[in-house]
Amino acid sequence: MLAFQRRVLEEAQDPTNPLYERVKFTGILASNLDEFFMVRVAGVKQQLTGNVTERSADGKLPQEQLLQLAQTAQVLVSDLDKVFSELTASLRSQADVYLLSPAELSPEQAAAAREFFLHSVFPVLTPLAIDPGHPFPQLRNKSLNVCLFLRRAAPTVDKRKRGKVRARVEANGDNISLALVQVPQVMPRLVKLPSARGQAWLPLDQLIAMHSAELFPGFAIAEASFFRVTRNWDLTIDEDEQEDLLKAVQEELRRRDRGTAVRLEIGAATSVEMEQTLLRALRVEPYEVYRSSSPMQLQDFMNLGEGDPRPEFFLDPLVQVSSPAFRDADSVLAVVRDKDVLVHHPYESFDPVVRFIEEAADDPNVLAIKQTLYRTSWGSPFVRALSRAAENGKQVAVLVEIKARFDEANNIAWARRLEESGVHVVYGLIGLKTHCKVALVVRREQNNTIKRYIHLGTGNYNSATAKVYTDLSYFTARQDIADDVSALFNMLTGLSDAPKWKKLTVAPLTLLDRLLFLINREAEKAKRGEPARIIAKMNACVDQTIIQALYAASVAGVDIDLIVRGMCSLRPGVPGVSERIKVTSIVDRFLEHHRIFIFGTGPTADVLLASADWMTRNFTRRIETMFPIEDHGLKARIMDEIMGLIMADNVKARRLQPDGTYVRAEIPEGATPVRCQAALLHLAQMSLSPEGGRAKWETQARLTLTPRSVP
C-alpha cells in the first residue's frame, strides 16, 4: 500500500506535470495516507490489542508490522515535506502564488488578516482550557487543532506594589496551562490576503494561532503549535447478533470519533514538552507521532489554482464525449435492445448510465427497476430517478450497501429517502458487502412481451468519480445474462438459493474457482505447446491462492501481464518461479480502476470484466460479479485499443521488480513514447471529429496513435 503512495509522490515530483497538477498529487497522497492509517494501520493495531500472535504472510507479528509500517511511513512523510516545500518555492517563482507564514506578512497583510479574524473567524471559535475541571476533549477524527501553552500575564499595578506582584509572578512562572482551539471545518482552509503581485494566502490554522491571545484574555502565549489525530475508522459489528443492521451501523458511526488514535501529526517546531503532553492525552505511542514541516491536511490545497486563468499550470480540461452508440439516440433502451454497448469512462461520458435509469423511471412501459448502490455521489441522480420511479407506481428494489467504508452515513441517508418514496430497500446480506455494480430494467414491449435490459459495471454508480476513475460500463439485453441478473437480485433481496449461473460468475460462490480454472486452463495449454496468455488489470493482487496459481502457470510456460495499480504481493521475474510474469502499475491523471481479465489469445480468448480485485476479501466476504464480453467488436476494442494502449504505456508506467521495488518504464531508443490515458482520451475525442482530433493529437507529445495489439 505504501509502495503505491510512493508512486503518487513521484507524480508530485515529476517536473513534466503542470504545477497545479503536482500540488494536487500531494493532496491525493495526504488523503490516501489518512485512509491507510484509519483502516490498514488500525487493523494491525486491533490485532495487537487483541493479543493476536499469528504471523502475517511475511512472517511478522502485529507489533513488528506496526513498527515497520511506521518506519516506512515516516520516510514517506519526510519526503512529502520536501516535495511540498519545493512546490511552494515553485509556486512563488513561477506563478506568483504565495503561501505565507505569519512572519512573512507585510503590515497591510497583517492588518487584513486581523480584520478577517475578528469579524469572520473569532465568533466561530471555541477556546478549550484543559485543567481538572475541563478534561482533555474527545477530538474528532482528522480534526485540525491549535495547541497552546498559556502563561498568565503579569497584571498592571502601581509602582508601590510592583515588587510584591513581581515576586508572586516569578514564583509561579512555570505554571503553564494547556489549551486547545479546533480549526473549524466549515470555513475555507486558505485565507486570501491583499498582495502587490500575484496571490497571497494564509492557512486558517496559522491565522488562528497568530491571534490566539484574543481567545484567552489575561494570558500570554508561551507556545502555539498544530496537531491532528487520526483514529480507527473501521466498523466493528457482529452482524449475526443484530436484529436491525441499519440501527447497528448508525450506532457504530456515532462511536467512530471515539475510536483508538492510530496517528498523531504535529508541527515540526513543536516542543518536546508539548509532544509529551499530547502523547499522554491521546494515548499514542512515540512511533505513532509524525512531525511535519508542511501544512497538515494537504488535501485542502488541491484547489489552490481554482480560478487561475493560466493554462500552462494545468492539464487540459477534461472534455468528455458521448459514446458514439448513444450520441444521437433518443432512447438508451432502444439502443441496448438491438446491440451490446461498451462505454469507457472517463473518456466517454457517464451520462448514458444515468439516462438508463432516468428513462426507465419515466417510461410507462417499464414495470420494474432493480439496482445495487455501493457508493453514489452527493445529490445522486440515481436516487432521484429511483424515487420518482417508485412514485410512478413501478416496482423498485434497491440494495444499498450501508457498510461501504467512509460512505456509511451517506448511504443511510439515501436509503431513508428511497424508502420514503416507496422503494423497497435491502441492506445487504449478513456477513457480506454487496460490491457488485448491477442494474436491471424490466419492460413490456409493443408485442406485449417482457424484455430485460442490463447494466453491469466495473465502477460505482457515482457521477463524480466517473470523471476521474477509469471504468467500463456494459449494456446488454442478452437473455442468458438477464436470467443471471434476475436470479442475482432474487438471491440478494429474497431467500432463494444460488442458481446454476449461465454467464455471470458471482463471489463468494464461484468467482475464485472460476479464476483458478481459467489460470490452470492456460497452464495446461502451455504444457501442450499451445499459445497461452493471461492479461489481468485490477487495483490489487494479494490473494495467495491466486498468486500461487499464477506462479505455477508461469513455470508451465504461460506469458502473464498484470496491470495492478496498487498492492501486489506477487513478485515477478523470480528465476524458476515467475520468469514469465510482468507487473506494471500506472499512476496518472485518472485513477486506474477498471478490472479487465483476458485468458487466451486471438478471437477465441475469454474477455471478462469484473467488480472485484484479486483480494481474499473480494472472493470470500463480498458479493461481486464477473461477466463475459462476447460481442466480437467489443472484445476487439478491449483487447486492442484499451488493453493495447495500457500495456504499451512507457511514460506513466512503473515496473515491479523481483525485490518489490518499482522503477519507471524505459523508452527504448527510437521508440515512440506512449502515455495511455492521453492516447485514450484523444481517441475518444477523435470520434467527434477525426480531422480536428488529429490536429490536436499532433500537438501532444509522448503519445502514439497506433495501439499495440494484444497477442
The gist of it:
By secondary structure, the protein is α/β, with parallel strands linked by helices. The protein contains 19 helices and 27 strands.
Which structural class should the secondary elements be placed in? alpha/beta
Helix content percent band = 25-40%
Strand percentage, roughly?
Answer: 15-25%
CATH topology of the largest domain: polyphosphate kinase like
Task: List low-pLDDT spans.
Answer: 161-173, 237-243, 692-711
Number of domains: 3
Mean pLDDT: 89
Radius of gyration: 29 Å
How many H/I helical runs?
Answer: 19
Please name the fourth-level CATH homologous superfamily of the largest domain.
Answer: Polyphosphate kinase middle domain
Q: What distance separates the N and C termini?
A: 31 Å
Number of strands: 27
- Coarse morphology: globular
- CATH level 1 class label of the largest domain: Alpha Beta
Biggest sheet features:
10 strands, mixed
What CATH architecture label of the largest domain applies?
A: 2-Layer Sandwich
